[in-house]
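Sample pair:
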Amino acid sequence: MHFDFLILFVITNSQTTSKEEFLSKIDQYLLEDSLLLNNGDKEYNELEKQMIEQIYRDALKRIKNRLVEQQPIQFNPPTYNQTVIDAFSSKTLLNPQQNLTYNPYDLQNLNTTLNDSVCGVLYPNENDRSTYYLVNYTSAQEAESAGAFITHLHNCGYCSTTKDLAMYMFHFDLTSPIRDCGIVSFISYEASLDCIQHSAGLTYNCAVIWLYDALNTRKDCLDICLYDWIMHIPNNVPANSTILNPCIQCDEDKSGPIFKLVAARTRRDSGLLSAINRPPNSIYNITHYYY
Protein backbone atom coordinates (compact mmCIF):
# COMPACT_ATOMS: atom_id res chain seq x y z
CA MET A 1 0.00 0.00 0.00
CA HIS A 2 1.36 3.42 -0.94
CA PHE A 3 2.20 5.45 2.19
CA ASP A 4 0.34 8.57 0.94
CA PHE A 5 -2.78 6.48 0.36
CA LEU A 6 -2.50 5.06 3.87
CA ILE A 7 -2.49 8.58 5.34
CA LEU A 8 -5.42 9.64 3.15
CA PHE A 9 -7.39 6.55 4.16
CA VAL A 10 -6.89 7.25 7.85
CA ILE A 11 -7.93 10.88 7.50
CA THR A 12 -10.99 10.40 5.31
CA ASN A 13 -12.38 7.17 6.75
CA SER A 14 -14.85 8.12 9.49
CA GLN A 15 -15.35 4.50 10.57
CA THR A 16 -14.06 4.05 14.15
CA THR A 17 -13.02 0.68 15.48
CA SER A 18 -13.55 -0.83 18.89
CA LYS A 19 -10.57 -1.03 21.23
CA GLU A 20 -10.34 -4.77 20.61
CA GLU A 21 -10.31 -4.26 16.83
CA PHE A 22 -7.69 -1.56 17.14
CA LEU A 23 -5.49 -3.82 19.30
CA SER A 24 -5.89 -6.57 16.71
CA LYS A 25 -4.69 -4.16 14.01
CA ILE A 26 -1.65 -3.27 16.10
CA ASP A 27 -0.84 -6.96 16.46
CA GLN A 28 -1.13 -7.40 12.70
CA TYR A 29 1.18 -4.45 12.07
CA LEU A 30 3.74 -5.79 14.55
CA LEU A 31 3.72 -9.19 12.82
CA GLU A 32 4.69 -7.63 9.47
CA ASP A 33 8.37 -7.99 8.67
CA SER A 34 8.52 -4.57 7.15
CA LEU A 35 5.80 -1.96 7.37
CA LEU A 36 7.53 0.99 5.76
CA LEU A 37 10.39 -0.53 3.82
CA ASN A 38 8.05 -2.19 1.30
CA ASN A 39 5.37 0.44 0.95
CA GLY A 40 6.80 1.79 -2.30
CA ASP A 41 7.22 5.33 -0.99
CA LYS A 42 10.16 7.02 -2.73
CA GLU A 43 10.37 9.95 -0.31
CA TYR A 44 12.68 8.14 2.14
CA ASN A 45 15.91 6.31 1.49
CA GLU A 46 16.52 2.86 2.93
CA LEU A 47 18.39 4.06 6.04
CA GLU A 48 15.66 6.61 6.86
CA LYS A 49 13.00 3.96 6.43
CA GLN A 50 14.82 1.63 8.81
CA MET A 51 14.99 4.36 11.45
CA ILE A 52 11.33 5.27 11.00
CA GLU A 53 10.41 1.59 11.07
CA GLN A 54 11.99 1.17 14.52
CA ILE A 55 10.40 4.35 15.88
CA TYR A 56 7.04 3.26 14.50
CA ARG A 57 7.23 -0.20 16.04
CA ASP A 58 8.27 1.18 19.42
CA ALA A 59 5.34 3.60 19.34
CA LEU A 60 2.91 0.79 18.51
CA LYS A 61 4.20 -1.26 21.45
CA ARG A 62 3.76 1.68 23.84
CA ILE A 63 0.25 2.31 22.53
CA LYS A 64 -0.66 -1.34 23.01
CA ASN A 65 0.73 -1.40 26.56
CA ARG A 66 -1.31 1.67 27.52
CA LEU A 67 -4.50 0.22 26.10
CA VAL A 68 -4.01 -3.22 27.63
CA GLU A 69 -2.95 -2.07 31.08
CA GLN A 70 -5.40 0.85 31.33
CA GLN A 71 -3.73 2.00 34.55
CA PRO A 72 -5.46 4.86 36.37
CA ILE A 73 -3.78 8.25 36.30
CA GLN A 74 -1.17 8.27 39.03
CA PHE A 75 -2.02 10.52 41.94
CA ASN A 76 0.95 12.37 43.38
CA PRO A 77 -0.06 13.49 46.88
CA PRO A 78 1.07 17.00 47.79
CA THR A 79 2.86 18.00 50.96
CA TYR A 80 1.28 20.64 53.20
CA ASN A 81 2.93 23.64 54.79
CA GLN A 82 2.75 24.75 58.42
CA THR A 83 -0.09 27.19 57.74
CA VAL A 84 -2.35 24.35 56.61
CA ILE A 85 -1.24 22.11 59.48
CA ASP A 86 -1.83 24.80 62.11
CA ALA A 87 -5.26 25.64 60.70
CA PHE A 88 -6.46 22.03 60.82
CA SER A 89 -4.91 21.47 64.24
CA SER A 90 -6.76 24.38 65.84
CA LYS A 91 -10.31 23.49 64.76
CA THR A 92 -12.97 22.32 67.24
CA LEU A 93 -15.02 19.20 66.53
CA LEU A 94 -18.67 19.74 67.48
CA ASN A 95 -19.73 16.07 67.52
CA PRO A 96 -16.88 14.10 69.11
CA GLN A 97 -17.32 10.39 69.74
CA GLN A 98 -17.40 8.97 73.25
CA ASN A 99 -14.03 7.85 74.55
CA LEU A 100 -12.78 4.48 73.42
CA THR A 101 -13.05 2.45 76.64
CA TYR A 102 -12.61 -1.06 75.24
CA ASN A 103 -10.07 -2.94 73.17
CA PRO A 104 -11.68 -3.62 69.77
CA TYR A 105 -9.20 -6.44 69.18
CA ASP A 106 -10.95 -8.37 71.97
CA LEU A 107 -14.23 -8.44 70.03
CA GLN A 108 -15.12 -11.69 68.31
CA ASN A 109 -16.33 -11.89 64.69
CA LEU A 110 -16.06 -8.15 64.14
CA ASN A 111 -17.11 -7.27 60.59
CA THR A 112 -14.20 -5.30 59.14
CA THR A 113 -15.62 -4.96 55.62
CA LEU A 114 -15.34 -1.38 54.38
CA ASN A 115 -17.65 0.14 51.77
CA ASP A 116 -17.21 3.12 49.47
CA SER A 117 -18.56 5.64 51.96
CA VAL A 118 -16.57 8.77 52.81
CA CYS A 119 -15.99 10.84 55.92
CA GLY A 120 -16.71 14.52 55.41
CA VAL A 121 -15.85 17.73 57.23
CA LEU A 122 -18.95 19.92 57.35
CA TYR A 123 -18.63 23.54 58.46
CA PRO A 124 -21.81 24.97 60.07
CA ASN A 125 -20.58 28.43 59.10
CA GLU A 126 -18.63 28.69 55.86
CA ASN A 127 -17.37 32.11 56.90
CA ASP A 128 -15.95 30.77 60.17
CA ARG A 129 -14.24 27.44 59.75
CA SER A 130 -13.04 27.19 63.35
CA THR A 131 -15.70 24.57 64.16
CA TYR A 132 -16.90 21.56 62.21
CA TYR A 133 -18.87 18.31 62.21
CA LEU A 134 -17.69 14.91 61.02
CA VAL A 135 -20.38 13.28 58.88
CA ASN A 136 -20.56 9.94 57.07
CA TYR A 137 -21.74 10.02 53.46
CA THR A 138 -22.55 7.10 51.20
CA SER A 139 -20.46 8.52 48.37
CA ALA A 140 -18.15 11.36 47.43
CA GLN A 141 -20.95 12.83 45.32
CA GLU A 142 -23.31 12.90 48.30
CA ALA A 143 -20.69 14.64 50.44
CA GLU A 144 -20.00 17.28 47.83
CA SER A 145 -23.72 17.87 47.26
CA ALA A 146 -24.12 18.46 51.01
CA GLY A 147 -21.37 21.07 50.98
CA ALA A 148 -18.96 18.85 52.93
CA PHE A 149 -15.27 18.31 52.25
CA ILE A 150 -14.05 14.73 52.00
CA THR A 151 -11.36 14.14 54.61
CA HIS A 152 -10.84 10.43 53.96
CA LEU A 153 -12.30 7.34 52.33
CA HIS A 154 -14.73 5.17 54.38
CA ASN A 155 -16.73 6.07 57.49
CA CYS A 156 -15.46 8.44 60.17
CA GLY A 157 -13.71 7.03 63.23
CA TYR A 158 -11.49 7.95 66.14
CA CYS A 159 -8.65 9.37 64.00
CA SER A 160 -10.87 11.33 61.62
CA THR A 161 -10.50 14.67 63.39
CA THR A 162 -8.73 17.53 61.65
CA LYS A 163 -6.27 17.58 64.56
CA ASP A 164 -5.24 14.03 63.65
CA LEU A 165 -5.18 14.96 59.97
CA ALA A 166 -2.77 17.77 60.85
CA MET A 167 -0.49 15.36 62.71
CA TYR A 168 -0.57 12.88 59.82
CA MET A 169 0.51 15.78 57.60
CA PHE A 170 3.22 16.94 60.00
CA HIS A 171 4.75 13.51 60.62
CA PHE A 172 5.82 11.98 57.32
CA ASP A 173 6.85 8.90 59.32
CA LEU A 174 4.43 7.80 62.06
CA THR A 175 5.59 4.19 62.00
CA SER A 176 8.93 4.76 63.73
CA PRO A 177 7.81 6.96 66.66
CA ILE A 178 4.72 4.85 67.39
CA ARG A 179 6.78 1.67 67.14
CA ASP A 180 9.13 3.06 69.80
CA CYS A 181 6.16 4.06 71.95
CA GLY A 182 4.78 0.56 71.49
CA ILE A 183 8.01 -0.86 72.90
CA VAL A 184 7.41 1.25 76.02
CA SER A 185 4.23 -0.81 76.56
CA PHE A 186 6.45 -3.66 77.82
CA ILE A 187 6.91 -1.49 80.93
CA SER A 188 3.66 0.49 81.11
CA TYR A 189 0.58 0.84 78.91
CA GLU A 190 -0.08 4.26 80.41
CA ALA A 191 3.43 5.47 79.60
CA SER A 192 3.08 4.05 76.10
CA LEU A 193 -0.17 5.97 75.55
CA ASP A 194 1.41 9.19 76.85
CA CYS A 195 4.33 8.56 74.52
CA ILE A 196 2.06 8.26 71.48
CA GLN A 197 0.21 11.45 72.36
CA HIS A 198 3.38 13.45 72.99
CA SER A 199 5.48 11.98 70.17
CA ALA A 200 2.83 11.98 67.46
CA GLY A 201 0.52 14.73 68.76
CA LEU A 202 -2.59 12.62 68.17
CA THR A 203 -5.90 13.15 69.93
CA TYR A 204 -6.54 10.93 72.95
CA ASN A 205 -8.85 8.41 71.26
CA CYS A 206 -6.72 8.20 68.14
CA ALA A 207 -3.70 7.50 70.34
CA VAL A 208 -5.67 4.78 72.16
CA ILE A 209 -6.48 2.86 68.97
CA TRP A 210 -2.86 3.21 67.84
CA LEU A 211 -1.82 1.70 71.19
CA TYR A 212 -4.25 -1.20 70.82
CA ASP A 213 -2.93 -1.76 67.31
CA ALA A 214 0.63 -1.88 68.65
CA LEU A 215 -0.34 -4.29 71.44
CA ASN A 216 -2.08 -6.62 69.01
CA THR A 217 0.89 -6.56 66.64
CA ARG A 218 3.18 -7.32 69.58
CA LYS A 219 1.02 -10.33 70.41
CA ASP A 220 0.81 -11.74 66.88
CA CYS A 221 4.04 -10.55 65.25
CA LEU A 222 6.63 -10.19 68.02
CA ASP A 223 9.22 -12.67 66.71
CA ILE A 224 9.01 -11.30 63.18
CA CYS A 225 9.19 -7.68 64.31
CA LEU A 226 12.01 -8.21 66.81
CA TYR A 227 14.17 -9.57 64.00
CA ASP A 228 13.31 -6.67 61.68
CA TRP A 229 13.99 -4.09 64.42
CA ILE A 230 17.31 -5.63 65.47
CA MET A 231 18.47 -5.99 61.88
CA HIS A 232 17.19 -2.52 60.93
CA ILE A 233 15.22 -3.90 58.00
CA PRO A 234 13.82 -1.01 55.91
CA ASN A 235 10.07 -0.48 55.60
CA ASN A 236 10.11 -1.86 52.07
CA VAL A 237 12.19 -4.76 50.78
CA PRO A 238 13.75 -4.04 48.32
CA ALA A 239 13.97 -0.49 49.62
CA ASN A 240 12.67 1.15 46.43
CA SER A 241 9.75 -1.26 46.00
CA THR A 242 6.21 -1.29 47.41
CA ILE A 243 6.76 -4.70 49.04
CA LEU A 244 6.37 -4.39 52.82
CA ASN A 245 8.96 -5.80 55.19
CA PRO A 246 7.75 -8.87 57.14
CA CYS A 247 6.95 -6.93 60.32
CA ILE A 248 4.86 -4.26 58.60
CA GLN A 249 3.15 -6.92 56.49
CA CYS A 250 2.29 -8.89 59.63
CA ASP A 251 0.93 -5.74 61.27
CA GLU A 252 -1.11 -5.02 58.15
CA ASP A 253 -2.55 -8.54 58.12
CA LYS A 254 -3.15 -9.07 61.83
CA SER A 255 -3.96 -5.57 63.09
CA GLY A 256 -4.75 -3.53 59.99
CA PRO A 257 -8.40 -4.47 59.34
CA ILE A 258 -9.62 -3.54 62.84
CA PHE A 259 -7.43 -0.44 62.94
CA LYS A 260 -8.90 0.80 59.65
CA LEU A 261 -12.42 0.17 60.93
CA VAL A 262 -11.99 1.90 64.31
CA ALA A 263 -9.39 4.58 63.63
CA ALA A 264 -10.82 5.12 60.14
CA ARG A 265 -8.17 7.57 58.97
CA THR A 266 -5.13 6.05 57.30
CA ARG A 267 -2.55 7.90 55.29
CA ARG A 268 -3.53 6.19 52.04
CA ASP A 269 -7.24 6.77 52.51
CA SER A 270 -6.46 10.42 53.31
CA GLY A 271 -4.38 10.95 50.16
CA LEU A 272 -1.17 11.48 52.14
CA LEU A 273 2.39 10.45 51.46
CA SER A 274 4.04 7.96 53.78
CA ALA A 275 7.49 6.76 54.80
CA ILE A 276 6.24 3.35 53.66
CA ASN A 277 6.18 3.06 49.87
CA ARG A 278 2.69 2.22 48.63
CA PRO A 279 1.35 1.49 45.14
CA PRO A 280 0.19 4.84 43.71
CA ASN A 281 -3.23 3.43 42.82
CA SER A 282 -3.81 2.54 46.48
CA ILE A 283 -3.68 6.20 47.56
CA TYR A 284 -7.07 7.93 47.59
CA ASN A 285 -7.13 10.92 45.25
CA ILE A 286 -8.06 13.83 47.52
CA THR A 287 -6.38 17.01 48.69
CA HIS A 288 -6.90 19.07 51.83
CA TYR A 289 -7.28 22.76 51.04
CA TYR A 290 -10.52 23.31 52.97
CA TYR A 291 -8.87 24.74 56.07
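Strands lie at 92-93, 118-122, 131-137, 149-153.
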